Amino acid sequence: MKALDLISSSMRLIGALASGEVPTSAEASDALTILNQMLDSWAADRLMVFTITIDEFPLVVNQQVYTYGTGGNFNAPRPARIDRMSIVSLTNPVQPLELPIDYYTDWDWQNIPVKNIQTTLPYAAYDEQAFPFRNISFYPIPTVPVNTRIYHWTQLTQYTVLTTDNLYPPGYIEALRYNLAVRLMAEMPGGYDPVM
């Protein structure tokens, strides 16, 4: 659904537009900002995330810490949340072996007294959850080439312009439409008056 169609539909729900009317460019621009803010907040809510994405990245021999985000060591959009991680052994490239690893909390990481130990395959990863890059440390530090697979929440696509046409799974258009209407009620003059 195009952003402008979604915005117009939500504005009709709150009575800010009549059937067949379109928002002014200022109203549409404001509503687009509100819509993208809503999609951004939904990225942090598991109920709104419809799928998990798996990213795979190579680890560098003898490197422990990697930045994860656009322009980082793991050059992909920074995910809102990581669910789990694995190490992929490349000993047999025909049949790479995926080994789940522990995803350490702050407490787990703090309790490792010596963090620069090396081995062939790491068995844990610690994520500082920093911003704009996540800083992910692998433990122990790998001494052979391996990959990591990161299972993370897939963010809903934001709208870049009013004519952007995004696709969502079944059920999301109605959720977007009604939730945007609730957010627009507070900002759109002439909208629904609950006293009536």
Characteristic terms for this protein:
196 residues, alpha+beta, seven-stranded mixed sheet, two-stranded parallel sheet
Topology pattern, helix = H, strand = E: HHEEEEHEEEEEH
Mean pLDDT: 91
Major beta sheet, specifics?
A: 7 strands, mixed
Oligomeric organization of the protein chains: single chain
Q: What percentage of the residues does DSSP assign to strands (E)? A: 25-35%
Given the structure, what is the number of helices?
Answer: 4
Structural class: alpha+beta
Backbone CA Rg: 22 Å
Percent helix, as a range, is: 10-25%
Outline the low-pLDDT stretches: none
The tally of beta strands, per DSSP, is 9
Q: Categorize the overall geometry.
A: elongated
Strand order across the largest sheet:
1-9-3-4-6-7-2
Beginning-to-end CA distance, first to last residue: 32 Å
Notes on the protein architecture:
By secondary structure, the chain is of the alpha+beta class. The protein contains four helices and nine strands, in the order ααββββαβββββα. The protein has helices at residues 3-13, 25-42, 106-110, 172-185; strands at residues 52-59, 65-68, 82-89, 97-104, 118-119, 124-127, 134-139, 141-142, 146-153. A seven-stranded mixed beta sheet has the order 1-9-3-4-6-7-2. The longest helix has 18 residues, at 25-42. The radius of gyration is 22 Å and the shape is elongated. The two termini are 32 Å apart. The model has no long low-confidence stretch (mean pLDDT 91).
